[in-house]
Design goal:
alpha+beta; 12 strands; 273 residues; 3 domains; binds zinc ion
Amino acid sequence: MSLAELVANEFHVALDSVMLLRHSSESVKKLLATGGTVEDYTFTQPTGTAYDYAHPNKQPIELVIVIVQDRVYAVYRVLGIEKEGTTYSLTSAAHQRFDVERSKPPRPARRFLMQPLSSTYTGLAIHGWEGGRSRTAVQRSGGAFFSQISGSVVADKLDSTALNDDLDKQIAESLASTPAQRKQRLTLAPKLPRRIEVTTTAFLRNADVIAEVLLRANGICELCRTPAPFLRKKDRSPYLEVHHRIRLTDGDEDTTANAIAICPNCHRREHYA
Ligand SMILES: [Zn+2]
């Protein structure tokens, strides 16, 4: 399925009311250098051009999928026209500097009310729009390559462990970057996180083992020997966590011999220290 079809289905809109809009890397670089924002760039469009979400002779646009650096930056629902004016009167001073930089004179324009949507496809790497300025920056249903733009959905299916390992790796990479690199990535990062489906493997733990171990500990952490840090709201019992000495994922037994009741600090230390 094409990216437009996936997103149209996700938000139950007709395919011909979807627009794909790609801000080229060169434009975005200039935009950020002048202090402009992708939002301002997206929300204000010259009237009667291919970018006009309410073009008089074209199907009204309900969903705009914004592509930055060949990834889905955001999906917006067009709620209506907020204001009419010119590309200069409707935008920020920073955006006007951006237009001056690109030698764009003021043009009649519309500022749209746009609602960011939490899409499964935000952040998704896309294919079919490669090659700098050689291809138009906008595609509507029926456009030359509208239906060829797709995303790599399958490669993004993860299990919950892989997801956490992946995040740990990315945090280490982020800490190793320079403050300027991090700042640039943060500016271009989608503001709404992408939702994905993950698969999880769980163990059905024996409640009798947990109860026995909690009674054995009697409110005292079995590692650091200090009393539980607080009482549970629901029954005023001391809060301890039952931890397996050898992890169930490593194939060990769910028995009282393999389990200890410990305080949250000790529990974290067992996993991360
Ligand atoms: Zn402890």
